[in-house]
Specification:
This protein has 386 residues and is of the alpha/beta class. Helices cover 41% and strands 15% of the residues. The chain has 13 helices and 14 strands. The chain has an eight-stranded mixed β-sheet, sandwiched between helices. A four-stranded antiparallel β-sheet has the order 10-11-14-13. A hairpin with a 7-residue loop joins strand 10 and strand 11 (320-324). The longest helix is centred in the last third of the chain and has 27 residues, at 279-305.
Length: 386
């Protein structure tokens, strides 16, 4: 048999000699391998062969209960049992949203900049994506209203708006409180569904996370996509959606779950076991402590090594800070110089639909690297800028 190229084990690609701040991944040294192993054994001992069966379509009851309990701690309200469905993470959930809640030719409003891989998922479907402006207070809700009126006036069907309102990827900004209320009110008045990517809710460093749009909105106006990728481990591929019961029923009654049963059934039971043991709350605090230290380290290094006429965000949670370079500088051109000096980042243009915006911006992730490596990476970035 012909030997093909070696197959990779993980998504991450190590580049020797480069401190790569482009990856929005957890630090492997912080992932609770032993705890997940114990939870997996516990789930098998507790449920036996049922742990390995086709699961209940909405997700196994212990997992739904765990999600409800945890959201009662970290959000403004807890969902009812019929308002939750298990997913294989945010990427799977967003793909299902585009499949089941949008029709070919529909317009999806997307904040700009936004999570670039969500754009890829949406573009796998015959939808038109339209960028909505974003500033230091988050998504500009008045621009959403203007865009909605203009597009619908032209006979277009605008059904969804995608946003990351809490510890935004890529900027780290959270949507201002008055804009949260304005957005959910607009959605309710205009029959617009807000798709809220809430992946970073657990990773708050300076006090509680703001209330989710889902917790504030009228039933049917917001669908929240939650995940255990950032707060536990991405390889489990476990997440959830919260929405009004009729919307959740659309997913529960869909063909994918009818055929294969609940998504990530065994992994969901492992998560439920991990939560019930108390290990999850401990792990979240471990992540918060480590990432808070790293957030502080990267911000201190930026103040020390990056020119005064550059600016950057000071995120209260999540994985990222967003750097805006001095006038006349281009992040794409800077990238080659930075990598020659041994650090890397993602240019800001990647996070814009047209790849033309964000030319002076770049995203730095502080989650995967140690404080010492973060300081050294920013020192190298500073040298590249000079």
């Amino acid at each position: 048999m012909t030997q093909g190229p070696a197959l990779a084990l993980t998504q991450y690609v190590e580049r020797p000699g480069i401190i790569d701040l482009g990856w929005g991944h957890p630090d492997p040294s912080l992932v609770p391998v032993d705890g997940v192993r114990a939870a997996a054994v516990g789930a098998l001992e507790r449920y036996g062969p049922d742990a390995l069966a086709y699961g209940h379509a909405a997700g196994p009851a212990p997992f739904i209960d765990a999600v409800r309990e945890r959201l009662g701690v970290v959000d403004a309200r807890s969902p009812a049992s019929g308002e939750v469905v298990a997913t294989a993470g945010t990427s799977h959930a967003l793909d299902q949203v585009a499949t089941l809640l949008a029709a070919p030719g529909d317009v999806v409003l997307v904040e700009s900049p936004t999570y670039h891989l969500a754009v890829r998922i949406l573009r796998d479907h015959p939808l038109e994506l339209v960028a909505v402006p974003f500033d230091g207070g988050g998504l500009r809700v008045e621009a959403v209203a203007d865009m909605l009126a203009r597009l619908r006036g032209a006979g277009r069907r605008v059904r969804l708006v995608y946003t990351v309102p809490t510890f935004h990827n890529p900027t780290g900004i959270s949507l201002a409180p008055e804009r949260r209320r304005a957005l959910v009110d607009l959605a309710a008045a205009e029959n617009l569904l807000v798709v809220e990517d809430d992946a970073y809710r657990e990773l708050a460093y300076d006090g509680p996370s703001p209330p989710s749009l889902w917790s504030l909105g009228e039933p049917g106006s917001v669908l929240r996509l939650g995940s255990f990728a950032k707060s536990l481990a991405p390889g489990l591929r476990v997440g959830y959606m919260t929405g009004d019961a009729p919307t959740i029923d659309r997913f529960v009654g869909g063909g994918v779950l009818d055929s294969g049963g609940g998504i990530s059934h065994f992994a969901s039971l492992v998560v439920a076991e991990f939560v019930a043991s108390g290990a999850y709350a401990t792990q979240v605090e471990r992540y918060r402590k480590a990432y808070r230290e790293r957030r502080d380290a990267i911000l201190e290094a930026l103040a020390e090594h990056v020119p005064d006429d550059a600016t950057w965000t000071s995120p209260a949670g999540g994985y990222f800070t967003w750097v805006t370079l001095p006038a006349g500088r281009d992040a794409r051109a800077l990238l080659a110089e930075a990598e020659a000096r041994g650090m890397s980042f993602v240019p800001g243009s990647v996070f814009h639909l047209d790849r033309e915006g964000g030319g002076r911006a770049l995203r730095l992730s502080f989650s995967r690297s140690s404080p010492a490596d973060l300081r050294e990476a920013v020192r190298r970035l500073g040298h590249a800028l000079r």
